[in-house]
Amino acid sequence: MSDREKILGRIREALRLPAPHPGVHGGASLDQGEDAGRREVPDYTDWLPAVGRTFEERAALFAKNAADLRAEFFLLDNESELPAAFQKLAAAQGWKRIVTHRGSLIDRTLIGNTLPVGYTDQGYVVAEMEASDAGLTECEALVAQTGSVLVSAKSSGGRALSVLPPHHIVVARASQMVADLGAAFAGLKAKYGEQYPSFLSFITGPSRTGDIERILVLGAHGPKKLTIFCVPG
Amino acid sequence: MIASKDFAARSRQVAADLTHRGFIHKALSGYELKRDENIGKFQNWGAARQSAAEIKWETINHLDHYLVEFTSKLEARGAKVFWATTGQQVCDYVSDLARDKGAKKIVKSKAMTSEEVHLNAALRKAGYEVVESDLGEYIVELAGHAPYHFVFPAMHLKREEISALFEKELGTAPTRDPEELTMIARKVMRQVYCTADIGISGANFAIAETGMISITENEGNARLTTSLPKVHVAIMGIEKVLPNLSDLALFLPMLATAGAGQALTGYNSMIGGPRQPGEIDGPEEMHVILLDNHRTQLLADPEQRDALHCIRCGACLNVCPVYRSVGGHAYGTTYAGPIGSVITPHLRGLHEWKHLSNASSLCGACTGACPVKIDLHHHLLHNRRNAAKAKPAWWEKIAYDVFAWVMDRPALYRLAGKLGYWGQKLHPLVERTFLDPARSWTVTREVPKLAPEPFRDLWKKRRQSATT
Ligand code: SF4
Questions:
Q1: On the CB side of B77, how many CA atoms lie within 13 Å of its CA?
Q2: Residue B374 Cβ contacting ligand 1 at under 6 Å
Q3: Residue that is last in its domain, among B391, B418, B438
């Protein structure tokens, strides 16, 4: 018998005795005969921290969370402002080389760009990406409730681009702003069906650690800085 | 019995070290403030806890169903699943894999299951270079310590100690700046990610619906560990499953809030398989190891089954007055604090580890803090009861037999009370010395005094004066 069968066998044997429901200390067990696969998913929205309904409220909440997390968030009035905003940041940070991936918002951002750019789409050399100053990506969603950016292997230039370079820049559209993680998951399901990318990540602020005396330090392994541009549309 | 002696000795030492306790206390009180602030942002923390507990109940009580769903989804996406009954099997599987791949260097992000099965030691013995990438784990490994806390492994070390350690091991200049210290580790680690052949991670959750594992971290080291090396190995306990991807919408904020007082941890990554067709990067192979290691034994105890609901947030340790006083190293277990005291007897043997369940004031702070509502302090009582039932101590048995015999005989009981009262007057002669029969109590506490006049005498007098 394989270990798979042995372990599953022990589990089935163990589960023959029913356990009391949560919150029923020492009491009788309820619905013992119930089958697995209760699929109705409760709506958590009413219990999690409150999020407004309009884009303005959500963007304001996102901005507040980003500030608390020490990420930069810029809400631009027009897509055409992207190149100037990007170039201003690049000049201020003194970047020499950036890495990115193909995408319509990225193309808009890089109009008039003079910095050397590497693209990950056809593969990349890890050491070159590591030595670059910034990684520029699109994303799947922005999450107002937590100030997070949802990236995936498909939407954001692979797994490493949003974590290896020391500065991560995200470009997003206002329509990508969602209330909470649940809404972000729903969006993924609608977009990919069963064919999820092999990698998804909610990025919440720059890389951080508190491992030394519980004191916050940014840039433990991943990016020290995170900048998010959001444009209408 | 050795484990209990060690525990007592180490506890006594740490409890007397007021500087150390002050240091730990300071670190954890910052946590409590932040946690409460974040709980306050929830519209209904109580309902969220109840819901989390119910979801875990549903999964654990149909664990076979969800594990089969999880593994078949994951395998369909090209990952290999290995079921391990024992820790040894995990070590053998990973060593064999490393050999087959011709690997030399292995990078790891935090996985408590790997601590549980002593994977690093096994891999190093087999000749591989293993580097812990989580900053805290890296520091404790360099220092040769066990993790002090399963969320904050190096919280017992002061920055000066870490600086001295880096100076000795890496030849870096001394510094008091936590940022500089972090950057030293960052620099070392960057090279490791780019050259490692295998990346090993843990998993905080596994999603049955989509066949994904979910990893929670702040530093980004787990993301690099699971992105750059050609082979990714994830090790997880069989209890980590959740039914739906959307359940994470509840569990991720709760884990962050209860565990570290954050709204959400820095990176929450869901990984379903190796690099898929059309994707740019990612490992060529993904192996997921499902570890039993006595978890099915705990599952077989319906009374304590909910201990498998644990999401290892560490909240129960952070609020525990015992943990705060004796520290994480006193326990001598992989999992310290209240949850460790509850499950270690199941994982490693009731009689050798029952003493941990006695080291509790039963204040219930752990139960109150637990985001999935595990009835921790009652489980400590259950362990005590089970231990006493399975193997009563002979002296306890004699003591209770004598007690019962005396209680059955009122005249004897009265006499015993009188003798006790007069006998106690002699106690100060030997109190706290080696001749003191109650020494283990009196060294740290006062003995309550028997009343000069027993209650029954007082009662008799009252009755008499009432009738006269
Ligand atoms: S028992 Fe509860 S509080 Fe303790 S680590 Fe597990 S989930 Fe957290």
A1: 26
A2: yes
A3: B391
Q: Does the residue B301 lie in any domain?
A: no
Report residue A42's pLDDT band, with 50, 70 and 90 as the boundaries. Answer: low
Q: How far is the CA of B367 from the centre of ligand 1 (A)?
A: 8
Q: Is it the case that residue B1 has pLDDT exceeding 80?
A: no
Taking the model in full, what pTM does it have? 0.91
A138: amino acid identity, one letter = E
Q: Which tokens sit at A35?
A: 């089958």
How many angstroms separate the CA atoms of B294 and A10, rounded?
Answer: 10
Q: Which of B353, B305, B360 is nearest to B338 (CA)?
A: B360
B321/B220 same-domain check:
no
**Which 8-state DSSP code applies to residue B242?**
E
Which amino acid makes up residue B206?
A
Summarize the confidence of residues B200-221 as an average pLDDT: 97
Q: Which residues contact B207 (CB under 8 A, 6 or more apart)?
A: B70, B213, B214, B241, B242, B243, B244, B245, B247, B248, B270
- Rounded Cα gap, residues B229 and B133, in angstroms: 13
Q: Which of A81-90, A164-173, B454-463 is the least confident region?
A: B454-463
Out of 3.40.50.880, 3.40.50.2300, 1.20.120.790, 3.40.50.10420, select the CATH number for domain A50-231.
3.40.50.10420
- When divided into structural domains, chain B yields a total of 3
Whether B29 and B167 share a structural domain: no
Q: What pLDDT does residue B21 have?
A: 92
> Among A38-52, A151-165, B332-346, where is mean pLDDT lowest?
A38-52
Which ipTM value was assigned to this complex?
Answer: 0.93
Mutate to test the pocket of ligand 1, among B59, B312, B376, B379 (most ligand atoms within 8 A of CB): B312
- The pLDDT of residue A151 is above 70: yes
The answer to whether the CB atoms of A212 and B30 lie below 8 A apart is no
| Average pLDDT of span B91-99 | 97
Q: Among A25-34, A72-81, B124-133, B206-215, which is the least confidently predicted range?
A: A25-34
Pairing of strands A225-231, A167-173: parallel
Integer Cα distance of A229 and A142 in angstroms: 11
Q: Does A41 score more than 70 pLDDT?
A: no
Tokens (6 digits) for B99: 């050999």
Distance CA B217, CA B256 (A): 10
Q: What's the order of all strands across the beta sheet hosting A134-137?
A: A72-75, A225-231, A167-173, A134-137, A98-100, A117-119
Cβ of B340 less than 6 Å from ligand 1: no
Query: What interhelical angle do B2-16 and B18-41 show, nearest 10?
Result: 90
B376 alpha carbon to ligand 1 midpoint, in Å? 9
Domain with CATH 3.40.50.10420 in chain A: 50-231
* CATH classification at residue B242: 3.40.50.10420
Helices (H), chain A: 3-14, 55-68, 82-93, 104-109, 126-131, 181-192
B378 shares contact with chain A (CB less than 8 Å): yes
- Per-residue model confidence (pLDDT) at position A40: 56
Which residue type does A181 have?
Answer: L
